[in-house]
């Protein structure tokens, strides 16, 4: 999961537990600077925060300071410098614009080292061109995908990062997903997230009809009309669909070797198409850390008193987000935060 009720439930559990244990929680009070003793060569002892009225507050960490301020997905300068590929991605799915790399910046200002670039982004292929930020699993099942020239260009059943990187190589950095009226039976058979059963909220014909009415999904009774609505060359689209149908009936994808469960014919009207772009959820590059979550400087020396976890911390992802490991992102954040706290309580450094 990247969002929704499970994530809200986890956040609530953490918040309620912290409050129960008497943790002093402050909201709307972002950190802006760390305090490092001995002219920037000693221990990190405090964090300076600033409220919306411009008043500053100093919080002393007697045993340590943990940076967990998120990623830098809404800082265009950092994106351009650390993830140049993000220049081609216009849709940002992160609901808050507060993720501006504050933790990374505070760390670097006291001598911390950042991961070597380019950093790994978390790209997904559900940035709807006509509805940025909308995530809907019916339209982004591994149906036939065509680029802006009406050409099939990849195996549509690959993990999200692979698909996203493939689309980024195509003109306009977008694709069209195309499917037909058989989707209520075919989508669950693909065993994809959120569309695996008739009980799924995304597996609702009324929802699809609303998306059509809103102009997010195109619908037509002929391939020719569908191609017109997509503004793609009809003869090219028809040829690709004919080829795709031929392989689907045979049960083998000669061109890109997609699983046969996802190789479905496009022959029963009405036909559907969704214009999909690449979207950025979060960035995954951060401050270099050791096995204890202690932040390191450029010589790999520990900066005493300073720790990092979550998307503030680095030393984990090299080039891409590995979607094939379930709980990868949240699991790292929770586990590394726990380990940082555990090490702090030992009081060794």
Walk me through the structure.
The structure is a single chain. The chain is α+β, with helices and mostly antiparallel strands. 30% of the residues lie in helices and 19% in strands. The protein has ten helices and twelve strands. It has helices spanning 5-20, 37-40, 76-82, 102-109, 160-168, 183-189, 205-213, 223-230, 234-250, 328-346; strands at 31-36, 44-50, 56-60, 65-67, 91-92, 121-128, 144-146, 174-179, 217-220, 271-283, 294-296, 302-308. Strands 5, 6, 7, 8, 9 and 10 form a six-stranded mixed sheet that branches. A three-stranded antiparallel sheet has the order 1-2-3. A hairpin with a 5-residue loop joins strand 11 and strand 12 (302-308).
Radius of gyration over alpha carbons? 24 Å
Oligomer: single chain
Cα shape: elongated
Extract low-pLDDT stretches. none
The percent range for strand residues is 15-25%
Key words describing this protein structure:
single chain, 349 residues, alpha+beta, six-stranded mixed beta sheet, 10 helices
Quickly describe the structure.
The chain has about 350 residues and is of the alpha+beta class.
Question: Could you give the topology of this structure?
Answer:
Blueprint: H1 5-20, E1 31-36, H2 37-40, E2 44-50, E3 56-60, E4 65-67, H3 76-82, E5 91-92, H4 102-109, E6 121-128, E7 144-146, H5 160-168, E8 174-179, H6 183-189, H7 205-213, E9 217-220, H8 223-230, H9 234-250, E10 271-283, E11 294-296, E12 302-308, H10 328-346
Parallel strand pairs: 4-12, 5-10
Antiparallel strand pairs: 1-2, 2-3, 6-10, 7-8, 8-10, 9-10, 11-12
Helix pairs in contact: 8-9
């Amino acid at each position: 999961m990247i969002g929704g009720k499970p994530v809200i439930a986890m956040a609530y559990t953490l918040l309620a537990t912290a409050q129960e244990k008497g943790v002093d929680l402050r909201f709307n009070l972002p950190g802006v600077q760390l305090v490092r003793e001995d002219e920037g060569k000693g221990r990190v002892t405090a964090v300076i925060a600033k409220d919306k009225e411009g008043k500053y507050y100093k919080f002393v960490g007697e045993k340590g300071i943990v940076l967990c301020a998120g990623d830098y997905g809404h800082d265009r300068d950092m994106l351009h410098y650390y993830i140049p590929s993000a220049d081609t991605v216009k849709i940002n799915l992160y609901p808050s614009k507060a993720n501006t790399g504050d933790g990374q910046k505070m760390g670097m200002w006291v001598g911390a080292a950042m991961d070597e670039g380019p950093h790994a982004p978390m790209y997904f292929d559900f940035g709807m061109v006509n509805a940025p930020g909308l995530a809907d699993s019916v339209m982004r099942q591994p149906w036939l995908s065509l680029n802006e020239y009406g050409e099939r260009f990849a195996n549509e059943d690959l993990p999200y990062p692979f698909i996203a990187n493939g689309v980024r190589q195509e003109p306009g950095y977008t694709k069209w997903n195309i499917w037909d009226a058989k989707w209520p039976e075919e989508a669950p058979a693909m065993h994809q997230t959120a569309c695996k059963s008739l009980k799924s909220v995304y597996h609702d014909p009324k929802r699809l009809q609303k998306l059509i009415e809103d102009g997010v999904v195109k619908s037509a009774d002929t391939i020719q009309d569908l191609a017109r609505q997509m503004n793609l060359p009809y003869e090219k689209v028809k040829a690709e669909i004919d080829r795709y149908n031929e392989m689907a009936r045979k049960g083998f994808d000669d061109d890109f070797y997609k699983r046969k469960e996802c190789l479905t014919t496009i022959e029963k009207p009405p036909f559907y198409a969704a214009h999909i772009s690449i979207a950025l959820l979060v960035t995954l590059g951060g401050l270099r850390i050791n096995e204890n979550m202690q932040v390191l400087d450029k010589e790999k020396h520990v900066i005493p008193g300073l720790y990092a976890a979550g998307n503030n911390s680095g030393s984990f992802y090299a080039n891409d987000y590995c979607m094939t490991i379930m709980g990868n992102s949240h699991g790292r954040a929770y586990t590394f935060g726990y380990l940082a706290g555990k090490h702090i309580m030992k009081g060794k450094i």
